[in-house]
Automatic annotation (TrEMBL), chain A:
Keywords: FAD, Flavoprotein, Oxidoreductase. Coiled coil: none annotated. It comes from the Bacteria. It comes from Paranoxybacillus vitaminiphilus. Residues 41-220 form the FAD-binding PCMH-type domain. This is Glycolate oxidase FAD binding subunit. The keyword Acetylation does not apply. SUPFAM superfamilies: FAD-binding/transporter-associated domain-like, FAD-linked oxidases, C-terminal domain. PROSITE patterns: FAD_PCMH (PS51387).
From TrEMBL, chain B:
Gene3D superfamilies: 3.30.465.10, 3.30.70.2190, 3.30.70.2740, Uridine Diphospho-n-acetylenolpyruvylglucosamine Reductase, domain 2, Vanillyl-alcohol Oxidase, Chain A, domain 4. PROSITE patterns: FAD_PCMH (PS51387). Keywords: FAD, Flavoprotein, Oxidoreductase. This is Glycolate oxidase.
């Protein structure tokens, strides 16, 4: 007891000096001292700062980088459980107050926005102009555009529209030494210099703080619908044959997502493997494609077509099925979210395996994966021990398929037992080299990424 | 086969010849090297030390390792169609020609991917899979001869990238020989988002300065069900520009949206694929939409309406595939066609926000008047990618310099309105200095720092992509390396 008290005393002293220094950079109202430095999901900070300008971001980073302080970056906090072996950094840099549209050139269909802007807020703003950002990340109400890009989050519609790397055309990034680096630009086509945008997308905040993002927009689809095709027999080969036939046709689905029976039960009420096939286009084209699917519908399957609004309601619910890092995560049950990447059609195997494991491993598993892009999201609930065992089982399962498992959400304590990024790639020295050039002092999101970068 | 039969005096050439299996796979005599002293950018020329023709990744790796250990500058070359000088051996490089590594290694239609060697020709991929109804989307105008390896190096675009994206949007994996000879594989099975920084994205478009790609996994697409092409003639450039904006604002994403101005039309009509465009119009638009048949007519109607609202003189829809192909041949050979009306021409490659089109075209006209040189405009109007073609006569003293200055000024205009100095041709040698129009010294150093991670000795394709360091840049670099 005595020892702990003394430590707290020492920390308190450091904090005073540290606070004074931060107060020379920011106003008092932008600095919040955290009473409880530990959080079940980790990635917290002794002090949370809320910069409102790029200059303030740069000054905080410069101060931290010069003074050997560690900085963790947070947007909406939905990915707080995603990676990270630091329970509490010196500074938690929140971008919650760095938000808003900087420039929207309607005719050019480009948008420049501050990174702390919540994703859904942007989509609602753009909808007034019949435009949209062609990304469908989880928890859009809370997730910020900066966080979506830094963690490279994508959803089922990636099949048609691609991911952040296909939408982002420019960025302003604050390097740990306070330098502002612009990458890309404001035009939709650009090959001047290295494509540095790509470096920051998915870098988990380990290279710089994304301050501003310029995106290329798409017109909002004039009509959409969603076909839910259920396979009560549960025959994976039959699902595969259907998917291959659809993929080999000239139809243009926006999503071709397979739901595990457990997830399907939650979303559709039917405990069967279900394909969520989305179409977005002018109305005549969408109906034409629906008709095609009806024509090739396998026997013994059942089909529901959700038009327009119903489709949107389905997707809204869909984007909130996984764990949300904003919730404390200290419940009785351990929640984990996995991103599993495999060759497209191997998604069938992964979703089937998730169904088998759920029966065998004393955990609850809900899973879905895109047959046109090869990415699965798997949500596991159970005791810590069982969850860890299941993650291991998935790794054993996908390694021979040439795939990977990334743990996107897990409580801090368990992240120390499971390597959330899996094995280092053979070219890890290049990743390390890039980190060393940009953040030599490991100031930013220390140990948040692959191989402890 | 045996190297000893040949009199090679240079020990490096002798050793390199051994790696590639003999004298038939290496060029080193001056008369043989002449063909490799430049690429599609012909204003700078320099002879390479030698040209080697490896047949496998292992041979590439050994060549690179040898160069690395012996401090020999080297670079990779595909078909040599690059327009910015990226494959010019400025420093007397050993040129590693990848034209013998030209196999299609595998096609997986179900998972929509193919694996090719770097020397595989772009259009051949589409030809190999078109009977099954699939194609490879990036379509640079030189696609009948340019290689996919070169496309990766330059992040090549093309007329149809408005809807389908450029090369980087279609690369799923690659095998790379790093500048020290080490071989790495990044997601060669095509699995998306491999954990780690996005090296695929970084390598694509790095203009051969970070590594040599020896295997490429690309995404292939199913052919669109329907395709319609529209040709529209305008009396005023401003009406044509406005029509471009209106089409996009109507929520249509055309597969391609191309524009040519009067001078350009004069050129293409005098060249090999004339279509019979009227000579007195100021601009034409070539518009293509594709997708589900049931939705196409609606889009075509909308496009016709927009054109009429913008005072189009004549607008027509291609009646069959033959007519469509004629229109495209006329457009795709547009650069070369300038040879029919001018002894020499210089292609530029600026990008602007679409909405600035009328303003920028006006300023290009002023530049043309200022230098007394004609400038033809052929461009991807839909994505704001301009190709001003400066027409000149190199035989007249001083005219080459004038053309270069006019081209550079066009890029300055693009940069001034918030655009870029290159949309698809790359920086290469040509636009090194123009990098300063859009990037600060610090931003350029941020990029060369990345190069140093991959290519610390800077033996691989040195002198490309970045401006010659100014004084202040050098000082800063020295500080950084301390």
């Amino acid at each position: 007891m005595f020892l702990i008290t003394e430590q707290q005393g020492v920390l308190g002293l450091i904090a005073t000096e540290f606070l004074l220094e931060l107060k020379s950079i920011l106003r008092d109202s932008q600095i919040q001292v955290e009473e409880n430095e530990s959080h079940p999901l980790g990635n917290s900070g002794r002090v949370t700062v809320y910069p409102q300008t790029e200059e303030e971001i740069a000054n905080v980073l410069k101060y931290a980088d010069n003074g050997g302080k560690k900085v963790t970056i947070v947007g909406g906090g939905t990915k707080r459980g995603f990676g990270g072996l630091t329970e509490c950094a010196d500074i938690l840099l929140s971008l919650a107050d760095y938000k808003g549209v900087v420039e929207h050139t309607v005719g050019d269909m480009t948008l420049t926005v501050k990174s702390g802007t919540p994703f859904q807020q942007l989509q609602e703003y753009l909808a007034q102009y019949n435009q949209t950002i062609a990304l469908d990340p989880a928890w859009p109400e809370y997730a910020t555009i900066g966080g979506v890009i830094a963690a490279n989050d994508s959803g089922p519609k990636r099949f048609r529209y691609g991911s952040a790397r296909d939408s982002v055309i420019g960025m302003r990034v604050v390097y740990p030494n306070g330098t502002i680096i612009r990458s890309g630009g404001k035009v939709v086509k650009n090959v001047a210099g290295y494509d540095m945008n790509k470096l920051f997308i998915g870098s988990m905040g380990t290279l710089g703080v994304i301050a501003e993002v310029t995106l290329k927009l798409r017109p909002l689809p004039k009509y959409e619908s969603l076909i839910l095709l259920s396979f009560p027999e549960g025959n994976i080969e039959e699902i595969r044959a259907f998917a291959v036939r659809l993929l080999d046709s000239m139809m243009e689905p926006t999503s071709l997502e397979l739901l595990s029976p457990s997830l399907s039960e939650r979303l559709t009420g039917k405990r069967t493997y279900t394909l969520a096939i989305g179409f977005e286009d002018v109305e005549s084209s969408v109906h034409y494609q629906e008709d095609f699917v009806k024509r090739i519908q396998p026997s013994k399957t059942s089909m529901a077509i959700l038009p327009l609004k119903e489709a949107r309601v389905f997707w809204q619910q869909f984007y909130t099925i996984g764990p949300n890092g904003r919730q404390s995560g200290d419940g009785q049950e351990i929640e984990a979210a996995l991103k599993i990447g495999v060759v497209n059609l191997d998604v069938l195997q992964v979703i089937k395996e998730s169904h088998i494991l759920q029966e065998a491993a004393n955990v609850a598993i809900e899973a879905h994966g895109g047959l046109g892009h090869g990415l699965c999201q798997v949500y596991v609930k159970g005791t810590g021990e069982d969850v860890v065992a299941v993650i291991e089982r998935f790794r054993q399962f996908v390694t021979p398929l040439g795939g990977y498992v990334i743990v996107k959400h897990l409580p801090f304590a368990l992240r120390q037992k499971v390597d959330v990024w899996g094995e280092k790639p053979s070219y890890f020295f290049l990743l390390e080299g890039i980190k060393a050039k940009i953040d030599p002092n490991h100031t930013l999101n220390h140990r948040r990424f692959v191989g402890g970068i | 086969m045996a190297v000893k039969d040949v009199q090679i005096k240079d020990k490096h050439i002798e050793n390199l010849a051994k790696i590639v299996g003999g004298a038939q796979s290496i060029l080193y005599k001056k008369e043989d090297l002449l063909a490799y002293d430049c690429d599609g950018f012909t204003i700078h020329r320099h002879l390479p030390k030698a040209v080697v023709f490896p047949k496998s990744t292992e041979e590439v790796a050994q060549i690179v390792k040898y160069c690395h250990e012996n401090d020999l500058p080297f670079l990779a070359r595909g078909a040599g169609t690059g327009l910015s000088g990226g494959a010019i051996p400025l420093n007397g490089e050993v040129v590693i020609s990848l034209t013998k590594m030209k196999r299609l290694l595998s096609v997986d239609l179900e998972n929509r991917r193919a694996v090719v060697e770097p020397g595989f020709v772009n259009l051949k991929l589409t030809h190999s899979i078109s009977d099954k109804g699939y194609y490879y989307a990036p379509d640079p105008s030189s696609q009948y001869c340019c290689t996919i390896g070169g496309n990766v190096a330059e992040n090549a675009g093309g007329a149809h990238c408005l809807k389908y994206g450029v090369t980087t949007n279609h690369i799923l994996g690659m095998e790379v020989v790093l500048p020290n000879g080490e071989i790495i594989e990044i997601s060669t099975n095509g699995v998306l988002d491999p954990p780690g920084y996005d090296l695929l994205g970084l390598l694509t478009g790095s203009e051969g300065t970070l590594g040599i790609v020896t295997k490429i996994t690309v995404r292939i697409l199913k052919n669109p069900e329907a395709k319609q092409t529209v040709l529209a003639y305008f009396d005023k450039v401003s009406d044509a520009s406005q029509a471009v904006s209106d089409i996009i604002s109507a929520g249509i994403v055309p597969a391609a949206l191309e524009m040519m101005d009067k001078t350009a039309i004069e050129g293409v009509e005098a060249a090999a694929f004339p279509v019979g465009h009227p000579k007195d119009i100021e601009a034409l638009l070539l518009i293509e939409v594709d997708g589900i048949s049931a939705g196409i007519d609606e889009q075509i109607d909308e496009i016709l309406k927009v054109c009429r609202r913008r005072n189009v003189r004549e607008v027509k829809v291609a009646q069959d595939e033959k007519e469509r192909e004629r229109w495209w041949a006329n457009r795709k050979t547009g650069f070369g066609a300038m040879g029919a009306i001018s002894p020499d021409y210089l292609v530029q490659d600026g990008v602007i926000p679409r909405s600035k089109l009328p303003e920028v075209l006006e300023r290009i006209k002023q530049i043309s008047e200022k230098y007394g040189l004609r400038i033809a405009n052929i461009f991807h109007a839909g994505d704001g990618n301009l190709h001003p073609l400066v027409l000149f006569d190199a035989r007249k003293p001083g005219e080459t310099e004038k053309a270069l200055a006019a081209g550079s000024e066009c890029l300055q205009v693009c940069a001034d309105v918030g655009g870029s100095i290159t949309g698809e041709h790359g920086v290469g040698i040509e636009k090194r200095e123009e990098m300063r129009f859009i990037f600060t010294d610090e931003e350029i150093i941020a990029q060369t720092n990345i190069r140093d991670v991959f290519n610390p000795k800077n033996l691989l394709n040195a002198g490309k992509l970045f401006p010659t360091p100014g004084r202040c840049v050098e000082v800063k670099r020295n500080e950084k390396t301390k």
